Write a sequence for this structure.
């Protein structure tokens, strides 16, 4: 199965990566776009502030772009 796993408001945290890795260990192909471009946040409020700063449309667009590299 191919899975698109979009991270939560705190970013692509170690917990999200571990979940993706567990799915991969189960034989799945998992894509984890990082719409926060490497940034993670310690709280929901901090993540929401980042989304407001960047703009929700930009964050959403990042998730729609093909992976690079």
């Amino acid at each position: 199965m191919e899975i698109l796993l979009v991270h939560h408001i705190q970013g692509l945290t170690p917990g999200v990566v571990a979940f993706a890795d567990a799915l991969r260990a189960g034989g799945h192909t998992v894509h984890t776009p990082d719409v926060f471009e490497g940034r993670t946040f310690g709280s929901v409020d901090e993540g929401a502030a980042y989304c407001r700063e960047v703009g929700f449309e930009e964050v959403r667009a990042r998730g729609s772009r093909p992976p690079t590299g």
